[in-house]
Design a protein that fits this description.
The complex is a heterodimer of chains A (120) and B (237). The N and C termini of chain A lie far apart (44 Å). Chain A has 120 residues and is an all-alpha fold. The model of chain A has no long low-confidence stretch (mean pLDDT 87). The chains are: A mainly alpha (120), B mainly alpha (237). At the A-B interface, helix 1, helix 2, helix 3, helix 4 and helix 5 of A face helix 2, helix 3, helix 4, helix 5 and helix 6 of B.
Chain lengths: 120, 237
């Protein structure tokens, strides 16, 4: 039952998020507004307990959810054969740059915040 | 033989086919992944996508017919984005205490990933619609699609770029972090969540709980910042 009511809360937040995003013409996608709404609602145990169960289950298998979109690669074979290598270079290099910049900036900021902490 | 062909035609036309194929292939890929000690090259999303794409191509099944079944899994991306509030809530004390560092690192990493993708793509002579689809590639697929639509990219392509970006991070992140050296689990997880969204975060979650928590945190922060800022920045180009 916790699983079902947790799912119900997620869907309610997403629906409310979609409605608010359309109604107020927010620059945020509906699910993101729904996430912010849920963040506010999580202070109540009535919401928190069931949502925790579903969220853990859903996020544990998060990568499965990307498979249908990923298979969509096969519909863009034309573009891929024309630009594939160049797109791959751009994607791989920029991902490495993003990973390195994030990790280094966070490490630098956290060290500055707590210099007493021994560095691993 | 005739019966088999008829049976196949019937089965492949029902949504049951796409749904079953996706889950069964993923379970097999996940089993292999665990069997080889979660080696990065055995990433279950990579192998599931490859196997399914080859299967569909060989059997002549068009993508929309596959998607009519797979959409039930795809739909869960929305609730999953909402569910990201949960790791944020669990880490709220830390989030508040380190808000400045977290937001700054997310901004710096997200901007670096997006800007370098567009810059490299531009230098290599990619057309503008592709560049606009590349820009949101570090944001989780459903949000990347929304952003791409707003800034003049192709949503379906943006989603594919996002999945590829996630795979690159999940597969090669460990080696990159080891090469840089001296990075804590939280920093590694946070970087994976920021630069390669859900697929990177899933990898972090499987490997280490600290890395996983920070990856979930990064994913949530990144989604909010990117959705707010990227359409604004894109107006200048």
């Amino acid at each position: 039952m916790a699983f079902l009511s947790g799912l119900a809360w997620l869907l309610l937040c997403q629906t409310a998020g979609e409605l608010l995003a359309r109604l107020w013409q927010l620059p945020l996608p509906g699910p993101v507004v729904g996430m912010l709404l849920l963040l506010l609602a999580l202070r109540w145990p009535l919401v928190r307990t069931p949502v925790g169960v579903v969220a853990d289950a859903l996020l544990a298998h998060l990568s499965l959810l990307f498979v249908p979109v990923g298979v969509g690669v096969m519909t863009h074979l034309g573009l891929l054969s024309q630009y594939g290598l160049r797109m791959l270079v751009a994607i791989v290099l920029s991902t490495w740059i993003g990973l390195a910049v994030t990790a280094l900036v966070l490490r630098w900021l956290l060290r500055r915040a707590s210099p007493a902490e021994p560095t691993p | 033989m005739q019966d088999f062909v008829q049976l196949w035609v019937y089965l492949s036309a029902t949504p049951l086919f796409g749904l079953t194929a996706t889950i069964v292939t993923y379970v097999l890929a996940q089993t292999l992944y665990l069997r080889v000690g979660q080696a990065p090259w055995a990433n279950p999303v990579l192998w599931t996508v490859l196997v399914l794409a080859v299967l569909l191509t060989l059997s002549g099944t068009p993508y929309p017919r596959y998607f009519s079944g797979a959409q039930f899994i795809h739909f869960l991306l929305g609730p999953a984005v909402v569910a990201l509030a949960w790791p944020l809530w669990q880490r709220r004390v830390e989030l508040r205490r380190r808000a400045g560092a977290i937001v700054l690192a997310s901004l710096a990493g997200g901007a670096a990933a997006s800007a370098s993708a567009v810059a490299i793509g531009w230098a290599l002579g990619l057309p503008e619609t592709l560049l606009r689809s590349l820009a949101p590639k570090s944001v989780t697929a459903p949000v990347a699609m929304g952003i791409a639509e707003q800034i003049g990219g192709i949503p379906a392509l943006a989603a594919v770029f996002a999945v590829l970006t996630g795979l690159v991070g999940a597969i090669s992140g460990k080696y990159l972090f080891d090469a840089i050296g001296g990075l804590s689990m939280p920093a590694r997880g946070f970087a994976l969540g920021t630069a390669s969204h859900g697929i990177g975060a899933a990898r972090a979650l499987q490997v280490n709980p600290d890395a996983g928590a920070y990856a979930g945190l990064a994913l949530g922060v990144q989604v909010i910042l990117a959705a707010l800022l990227m359409p604004l920045v894109a107006r200048w180009f």
